[in-house]
Structures
1.
Amino acid sequence: MTEILVSEVGPRDGLQSIDRVMPLEAKKRWIAAEAAAGVREIEVGSFVPAALLPQMADTAELVSFAKEIGGLATVTLVPNAKGAQFAAEAGVDAMSIPFSMSETHSIKNVRKDHPAMLEEIAAASSIAREAGIHFSVGLSTAFGCTMEGAVGEDQVVHLAEKAVEAGAQELSLSDTTGYADPAQVRRLVRRVRAAVGEDLLTTLHLHNTRGLGLANVVAGLEEGITTFDASLGGLGGCPFAPGASGNLVTEDLVLMLNSMGLKTGIDLEKLLDVRAIIEEALPGEPLYGFTPDAGPMLDYAERSAA
Amino acid sequence: MTEILVSEVGPRDGLQSIDRVMPLEAKKRWIAAEAAAGVREIEVGSFVPAALLPQMADTAELVSFAKEIGGLATVTLVPNAKGAQFAAEAGVDAMSIPFSMSETHSIKNVRKDHPAMLEEIAAASSIAREAGIHFSVGLSTAFGCTMEGAVGEDQVVHLAEKAVEAGAQELSLSDTTGYADPAQVRRLVRRVRAAVGEDLLTTLHLHNTRGLGLANVVAGLEEGITTFDASLGGLGGCPFAPGASGNLVTEDLVLMLNSMGLKTGIDLEKLLDVRAIIEEALPGEPLYGFTPDAGPMLDYAERSAA
């Protein structure tokens, strides 16, 4: 049975996209409950200045908490080398730095062009390497940009190679904008892996802005991708608001993968129960997904044991 | 460029699932507008007794109307040989008869076990053949049944062969219940085609009850399927109500296929405008889809011209 890693990014990608701050205790309950449901990797926060993203101010405390949970890999986002230093001090298992394939987006977002970002990545990767921490680069806007439109595949492949030269041990092809289509996913995954080698871990971070999230997962599976990011309840993205993230919904992803007979190790019923923690901590916050309402198929147990 | 036929089933599958009756003139506007957007096949209604489904009472008039539209194939559902006779008299281009793979569902739904349904199919196909009308059998509940749970793949393959012996010129593998997963779609399509031959047209009728509709389309594309049913606005199915149909949304399907560089011949902007006709004729009726709200990607035109 093929093992698939579903990496939960809700506590970071979900929470940083909404204005309200989830209390630390609720975040802890969320992380603990997902781990108990069988989730083996969670991005718990981001080491950004608290003045910029107060939602992420408790990231170091969450890392300490998550590290105590057996069998769980604790990941944080780091925007730059300074963030990498904080992550190393906190003792994360892995850190991920976003690198926007659209230079317009990169300059607008972090005020760095591509050469400047590559320097930052190299500096951050040195910190990670010295601390023995897994280092991932998120190739954001890899499938298109709301400012530039199309992002050339040649450019993505070239920047992917540069990111590996700068120290990336993992590349996460990220559909930040919900632009990816399944043919593009197959093409770009194949091209990037051909360029950087099959031995380097390539993963997918997909959004569901246009409803193509799971279709793109299928395309990724066809290309041999075995790690996918998702956010519980699709938190933090209204798929009906242009520009919003529309994160892939963890519950639907797990239903699909388990039904296909792929091994995620995640108990769907327990995962569905985790929603109550978010609903209680952030009342009224919209949560998404089809599985929470439709429920699994009658023969779900047979399928997932297949 | 691979040509894909998107077959619109909303005027039948969508409208028969809601209680209100759409006025004939609105149905005509809908059909004409979709044809003008480039849709080449529409299931306009069903030849069932008006006492059972008053929503479908004007099917013969719609067939007359749709036949006058150039380049459009006019399809109707027929539940039995009697319906086939009406369809032949109306002069449809194609008729489709549902054949439930779950015998429990078949008996409950049309009070016929499998042998009785196969007799009905043979009788209907004779009528179609004599009239020179394309004859399709919809293998409903092929991916699972809300009453029986799993429906054996051996059984589906066996009944598919029987349907072809009874005169089917096309088999539509139908996920009536929203149970299909992408691995199952690939497996079942491959097995059915191996059994009945690649020359026989095999198509997919998918639902989106659990959000896997487009993921299952990708699986079907991988297996060489080139015809997919969909319903404008996902009309007639609330994907959040267990047991409801949750039809695949035509707009999202077309966005995905066109973005992939597949040739549907459908103009997405014109298709999106068709929703206004339904909204006006059935005020308050829920319509679904991501594309209507998110809009196409900035580089959509480049992608679809690829």
2.
Amino acid sequence: MPCLRNILNPHSVAVIGASDSVVKFGGRVMSFLIKHGFSGQIVPINPASEQICGLKAYAAIGAAPGPIDVALIALPARAVPAAIRECGEAGVRGCVILSADFAEAGDEGATRQREVVDIARRYGLRIIGPNCLGFINPGLRLALTSSVALAAEPMPAGGIGLISQSGSLMASLISHAQDTGAGFSVAVSVGNQADLEVCDFIEYFIDDPVTRAICVYVEGLKDGRRFLDLADRCRDAGKPLLVVNAGRSEAGARITQSHTASLAGSSEVWAAACRQHAIVLLDDPEALIYCAHFLIRFGPPSGNGVAALSPSGGTIAITADRLAAAHLRLADLSPTTSSALHDIVPTGRPLNPLDIGGLARERGLSAARRAYELLASDDDTAALLIVVATTPELDAKVRAWAELALAMGKPTAVLFPPGALVDRARSILRELQCPYTNRMDDALRVLNAAIGYGTALRAPRDAPIAPINPARVAEFGAPSSALTETEAKELLDTVSISTARAQIAMSEADAAVIAGAIGYPVVLKLSSRTITHKSDVGGVHLNLRDEQALRSAWHDVQSRGTALTSPEKLECAVQPMIVGGTEMIVGTKWDPQFGATVLVGAGGIWAETLRDSQVALAPVTTRQALDLLQRLRMWPLLAGSRGRGAADIDTLVEVVVRTSWLAATLGPRLQELDINPLLVKSRGEGAIALDARATLLPLQL
Amino acid sequence: MPCLRNILNPHSVAVIGASDSVVKFGGRVMSFLIKHGFSGQIVPINPASEQICGLKAYAAIGAAPGPIDVALIALPARAVPAAIRECGEAGVRGCVILSADFAEAGDEGATRQREVVDIARRYGLRIIGPNCLGFINPGLRLALTSSVALAAEPMPAGGIGLISQSGSLMASLISHAQDTGAGFSVAVSVGNQADLEVCDFIEYFIDDPVTRAICVYVEGLKDGRRFLDLADRCRDAGKPLLVVNAGRSEAGARITQSHTASLAGSSEVWAAACRQHAIVLLDDPEALIYCAHFLIRFGPPSGNGVAALSPSGGTIAITADRLAAAHLRLADLSPTTSSALHDIVPTGRPLNPLDIGGLARERGLSAARRAYELLASDDDTAALLIVVATTPELDAKVRAWAELALAMGKPTAVLFPPGALVDRARSILRELQCPYTNRMDDALRVLNAAIGYGTALRAPRDAPIAPINPARVAEFGAPSSALTETEAKELLDTVSISTARAQIAMSEADAAVIAGAIGYPVVLKLSSRTITHKSDVGGVHLNLRDEQALRSAWHDVQSRGTALTSPEKLECAVQPMIVGGTEMIVGTKWDPQFGATVLVGAGGIWAETLRDSQVALAPVTTRQALDLLQRLRMWPLLAGSRGRGAADIDTLVEVVVRTSWLAATLGPRLQELDINPLLVKSRGEGAIALDARATLLPLQL
């Protein structure tokens, strides 16, 4: 993105709509440009003034001396198209449009946005925004934004590249970085992403030598697959990519739609995409900065064992509870470490987390230092948590710990207690550029994010190999998008997944003949293209032991089905009653943002109730499929426990892999597919799809 | 507790071990007493000085002019018993012992602690500590503590009564209150609770007119039932009781044992006890102060609908997601509220949570005010969340919101963004004594705590009525504590819970005769007093369809059982195979802290895997039992869904109630009981205990 390098690192900036009044957008922009000391050329544009903020102003961009690298536009929306045209004519390379009332504000705004983009394209001019707050480049002392957050000085410079779809969040994260000692290479608010979008900036940051971690607040991606490809490039470049995505809840999704006209994706799919591509997914914007700062200073932890210490016994008990609740594993200290620690603290005191309170005064500081060194040197300690408490010699201890952590390169989260009493200690850490947090929640987020990132980096990246014949899958079609059960099972045949075949009965007598032939007990199911959730309407009768039961079930299904659809007689399917095994669900869904996905979970009557399921982007490897199973709450039931033998996990894994390839091969044609239940038998005995439903769009001929 | 009133509100305090040096405990205590301006008499005791901190010092407490209300002891542990004796002789009413090396430090310390208590009892002298940090009474400007937290001034005065088993946590919460504008009636650190314990202070605070909310950090209760009785008195007095209990995790429990010699209780039982007694249970100490401050200023919300607003669109999208993740319900605004809000914000914009950003400048402040009024006046809004963002006119908006919230008496959580830019707004809220938080996690904790407290207050307090014959239960006994399945089912008979009776077979032939008589299919189970988890060892064979299957099962059980216990032949039980229904577990456990408890959850093979269970203190009412069921994840399966009819919930509730009475009646004799599975059939068809095991201590004759 060479154009972005010019726009984000300009030699000259123009402000269209510049003003002397800081209550106006263009006035605040001017005041921040001057106040923060941008060393390049600043060109105010305003037809009504000859001079603004002491600088010569021009009536139009065309009248100003060129070249102008970037022009910020702070005009009412209706004036923007003309301004863009003038910029284009004047050879400006990039425009930052602060103005709102574009795609986020309905049809008229959307039309105006398209117009602006069309004009810009004609001139090869790139746009940030509209409906954004601009950007800052602290290295250049450049604040090209109207955000009041820039009233504070200096701008925090550092290695974080920040991309925010919300202007005010960018502003609040700049304030947050100022508070905590973190800093930015560039922080940019992308607004409606009419032209330049989140991914363009990620690409810039990957190539930018100053940027060491990339933070993104996103309400909706324009191109999910490009985002994931860039995530892989971030991983290869050793630059952690950290994301907060809004719109995970129903109410949140309504807001992102209204706010920046973004369609939020499914939160489960987001989580799966991030897990598979080593993206650090967070729920809180400020945590982006905490975690990025931590990863920049320490790099990813080499394992997942955590050691913790505090000079307060009460605090350390709470710390133990909170670490457990956050599913962080306490490092298992070696006998060597333990016996050395017992030279410092009384025997009988637990060693991890370690309470170093109540040690004799003369040994306080040296014991604090020694305790850190011992914990940090243990082979199982991948990261540390220091919970500071207001004790004597606080500042000296905090300095000693931070210096040791940085010297040893051991990822260490420092958590401060509340209060002005530790302000001095906080400033010591800012001077050392050692990250810290003020709340346990954030310390735990930092540890989990860093450990999770390290784990994702170490995960094997085996290339998925298709165990199916893609051509056979791709040519599959059905008369209608809503597949019948029989058609759905035929679709499973194309990837060699075993199914319990049902035979269609057109009449009661027909059903009795079929059942007699296959042998009781049998299952009778409504067979309909329109009623796909058969169980919900009482359209499934299990375990029919004889003909009388079958006939009675036939009548029941007919009366229920008829009430729901048409007065005509309905078809039913008869299949053998197969029992013994674990009922699972395996499914796929096309995600508009990230594409094909696969799901596996507890099936049958438990599927909807327990929601014990896991999702991944498709296709998955055998290893990934097994990983999905192991993350289910019901995993112990599959693995065998409580007197139950293990289920046929190998076959289940294979079904998940094949289903994922089915989804990946059919792409957006396969809107969704549910195998439910998939009956998984004992080890070595296979698995069989008892029921299936699918929505498959027609073949494009 | 009249004695506590004297000790916590003294006219005269002595410091035994007083010093001029602030690196010594007794020196810091003296310096804080003087610095904070305690208006009563301060009496330094030190045999080596004539004057300390400018005050006349005495060689011994007996030499000082009396009466002394409270003496603080800052001496090495070995000197404490003699000091206590001297205090007793001198007529001192209470002693605060800072010294450590008592019960928390092993056997020798425990002996010393008993000695100190014995001496004190002889003189009617009460003790706070040992191993504590003393207390503060800001109303009297009295800081009787050595904590360096008291270096900051002034002490925060207010309506919170704080009791902490950790001294350094008390100190950090004093700093936290200073930061946030909250304050204390008294904050006390109770240490080892050798004499005065947490409950004594709760009792004091209930009667203390200045105290309006009571916060407790506890590592272990000395008397769980007394604590719950006092919780009920807090509820009656309208004073919320807020608790953080440490030792919820295994590692945390090891630490509390080592730190203050406390045995932590089960975290599930703690949660149940708090829910049943309107105690606000929190996971974070600082949250105690946030939540107490909020409840003092606003009282409990009248419902559970939450409305939120922010001037930042990105922030409001995140807010919606976080509220959903915290299981807070968005208020469902009335059409009247909605149409009035649409006079302020563009149509199409979601109204709750409400983004009031981008409104025309001239209407900014009035729109912000009006939006709050409309949201707060809606019938379904019980509490509000304001997420402040750095926008123009920030201070005026924040002041307007806070004044409206306090005037309307509407519980409103204000969340500030990071950064020094909002420091002025923060100080406005402190002046108004309007609570606020700086992190979303804390805002959500406050809302959940307040709404949960309000809900608990409104919960009906119907008195439980025993549906059983307690005498019949109480006289039940068995030959050994480990009951056989048959004995456990006899125990269930005493409270009229239906059981599937098994008949004991002494031989293979015997088993065949029994099975023939009751009819196939049958179940064959190992019957043993020593092997109580039969399934785990393969000792249960289900669904035996004929004699051949039965005989083969007999041999399998014999070989497995023999391998585990003795070379002799084992007994087996034969019972009818009963199918169709939902398998549940209902159980009891004696909790050393809170007494009898009852549990209900998913049973059978799912019991251990899903851990979908709920616990309550026993006995429970019908309403409470139903509430437990409704909190299970599997509740939809019981209530009927996905084509399944409802289970016999009435009978299940009755079984839970009767089991809870069994536990309550037998008390500590019934160590534990598991009915698993309890097969719950369709509505109207009952429930039957298929298996049961119990540990019942012998009758005390």
